[in-house]
Amino acid sequence: MPSGPPPDPTGRRSLDDAAIARLLTGFLRRTHLSTPADVARVTAEQGAEIGATDVEVYLIDYAQEVLVALPQSGRLTPPPLAVAGTVAGRAFSSSTILTTAAEAPDRCRLWVPLLDGTERMGVLAMSFAEQLTGDLLTETCERYAHLVAATVMTKDAYGDSFEFARRQAPMSLAAELVWGLAPPMMFATDDLALAGMLEPAYDNGGDVVDYAVNDRLLHLAMFDAMGHGLAAAGAAAFALAAYRHSRRSGHDLTQTHAAMNQAVEDQYPDRRFVTAVVAELDLDSGRLRYFLAGHPPPFIVRGSRHVVTPPAVGVPPLGSGLPHRAPAIQEVALQPGDVLFLYSDGLTEARDGDGELFTLERLTDFVIREAQAGHPAPEMLRRIRTTILSGGHVELRDDASALLAEWRRGSEARLLPQTVLE
């Protein structure tokens, strides 16, 4: 339980350096031996050190539609909060601390983004006496939320508590395999903001995405296996493993293609092929190099106004059984502000209510509108997911995945916590 003097009769405790120290050091001390299921309770109890009440940890669900409160023993768990149309959702989607009135009189409620680096994990809700509000409290809560987010990320490896919360629908066995291999769906560094998408979130069975930032070189890859379900997920996962092995062995793009193609052919002699796009982006120069193996080419949104279509010379899918030939390594120079979009054909082949294809043109128009609105990479993909896919405007006939990378667009700064920018 929290140490230090008890709160005064109004439930307030003065916010000073000692209280902040008790908050942070106490949380660190207690979470060393905590289980994942303990994190929400410890977060709430330690919040009392700075006068916080009604503390709730909300995590985003896999479909990026609702924020789900983590259970705390002995307390009633609040219902999920929709991202669309709620203050909690705006705090999450904008990575901004927002304040509302609390249910109790003379108290306010802070909604603080849970950010691990720049990855948006959810929000931390905390209520305070109005007299305590101010810059110091805001900064303290933001730092506390970062610590909680990092703890959630770390403890996630040791239990299923966070998975139970994030899953708002049954997950197929194939999706279980795909998500288990997926990297975090958000990353940012100097000159780069990156986001990924796997749909349908609970039944994806043939698409996988991957990326890695090694020094100043960004590696991107997307694989789409023939068919759907567990067999397709297994083939895509195998291609991903072959790609990572080749990348981590220091192979260039041509060598990587040869290694992946041979591995898929050897493992699947029945010709269960896998399409692929594999790319490398130099973050200093903007030079993009890639190859296509039966996969749709990426496109670039330039100046938030028009689409640039890079060269699309490709080779057959991995494991097709056709005579091997080295892929043509395509090359294009990105310009500052460019948005690079990699996707699988399940996205453009989705159908609307009239049975019409969603099409590449409609996809690029949507990305242009989102770029013009100033939304950063993760919010663009979340809005594609919720506005188009989950909004009932189109019906997926296949898995739909995407990787979106912004180069020197400045959007990485919009993903940082407020007080980091001050």
From TrEMBL:
The keyword Lipid metabolism does not apply. GO terms for molecular function: phosphatase activity. The keyword Transmembrane does not apply. InterPro entries: Bact_Sigma-Reg, PPM-type-like_dom_sf, PPM-type_phosphatase-like_dom. Residues 189-407 form the PPM-type phosphatase domain. PANTHER family: STAGE II SPORULATION PROTEIN E, STAGE II SPORULATION PROTEIN E-RELATED. This is PPM-type phosphatase domain-containing protein. It comes from Paraconexibacter sp. AEG42_29.
